[in-house]
Amino acid sequence: MDDLTDLSTARPTGQPNCHLILPRGWGTGPAHQDSPVFPVEAPVLASAVAACLAKTPRTEIVARAPDGLQIEAEERSRLFRFVDRISVRAVPQGTGRSALAFFSRSRIGYWDLGVNRKRGARLLAALESELTTARP
User: Of residues 8 and 80, which shows the higher confidence score?
Assistant: First the structure.
């Protein structure tokens, strides 16, 4: 499954096994959470996302959009090796600014015990660190 998810039309499944973060006013939502705005251009943010995902255990990047702004990844749970799908797109927010569209969802099961929400929080924290380190 190497196709890209259309994050502009992504919607929560209605089950507690996904988490959707969108830039305010972007996409058809509704989102579980608004994305913060980062003080970098979208390509820089997308590269930082790729770097963060590459450092995440049991996570594999499986596709990238031709424009480089969207990344599709899969993460396997430690114990049972369940696969979750992660879609992230850097969304331009004006000159020198961008935000994230992030959709993480379990492929199997109804409950995820908050795993996808925590994954979003971890990525946002990792991005703050990655972008701080990358700036001169």
Answer: 8
